[in-house]
Predict the structure.
Amino acid sequence: MRTKIFLISVFALIILAAGTASPAMGQGRIQPVIVLEVEGVINPFSARYLDRVLDIAQRSDASLVVIVLDTPGGLETSMRQMVQSILQSPVPVAVYVSPEGARGASAGLFILMAGDIAAMSPATNVGAATPVPMGGEMDEVMSEKALNDSAAFVRSLAERHGRNVSWVESSVRESLSMTSTEALDANVIDIMANDLNDLLSQVNGREVRGVSLDLSSLTLQVEKMNWVERFYHIINEPNIAYMLLSLGTLFLLAELSDPGLSAAGIGAGLCFIIGFMALGSLPVNWAAVGMLALSLILFVVALLTDTEMVVTAAGLIPFILGSLLLFTPFRPESPAAPELRVSLWLILLMAGIIVFFSLVILRAILKASKRPPQSGAESLIGITAITKTTLNPDGEVTIERQTWSATSPGGEVKEGQPVRVMSVSGVRLVVTPEDIED
């Protein structure tokens, strides 16, 4: 009996020791700091990237997520999705405008204000979040709605973290911007840090969400965009999207100059598919897309007719206009969108290449494809031959001092008669007498 009591007591002590040791072990585990880099125009794939990394941070029990931000702005829907993800994250989030020379403009201001910690590197700037009437003026009511909505949104974010509400609202209403030094002095941001290590050093011990951050022992875990996110992020750059559409036009013209499913046809299909995927994530003027389609039709007409100079020149007008207006919709699709445009030099370069290809290279290919073959049996089609033997219906003919096997489907042809080569069947010429030719 005493043995049983002893064994039960030992077992209970073991369980008790394990229970008390578990928290200590949990406390001793190093929690990582997750870092992600959001660069360029804010788009749906920026939001997808952030959601994926925040999920990793939650599953790895990270102590902090740092968003290294450098953006001119972006789509409002994507910006709001990112702000909501930051606000709902169970892991504290620091937004850090970096490196030197970076900016947190337009949509970037909203993302910066959403962070539990707002930080900037020296020689960076933030602000200029006024709604942009890209390509056309908003009516007074729509302009007022966009301003009030954006101002209220950014105010709520600044209030949440005790930052300068008045200035962030002015940034929206008056398009104000600040340097990092000015932002720190005006309580728009919390920290100015030279680099990531400096940021983490200043954040260590800081109270966030009622908890003191302990970063005395940490491991940095940098999460890059995966290849899918990186691919879509790259093609969402306006100049890249425009170049894809222009290359698709070139490949299509090349395919039409020498029909048949070739590399040019496949290239045209891929460029147009990827290009229109990019347009789906950018503020697009679809009237401008219609102009580009019209120019493509005119280029094709010029290629396939004898009016190439006139029609190609006419096609250049909608091509250049459509290119200039491609990312300037009649109404702004995002109050926090940056001003997007295609480089004028790129437009002129692509216009010049298309004209050169249409009038010189592709025209030469088209003419060459219509010429009769210059070698082999096919080059004899349409030439007159003299029968060397009687064709009944097979025999031989002499043509250009050469003897060829021939056949006359129309019947017997006497020796020494002139015949016209109509086609080639294998290595035999198909001929018809000259006097019964249609």
In short: The chain has 14 helices and 16 strands. Confidence is low (pLDDT under 50) at residues 10-28, 133-137, 330-336. Residues 127 and 349 are 34 Å apart (CA to CA).
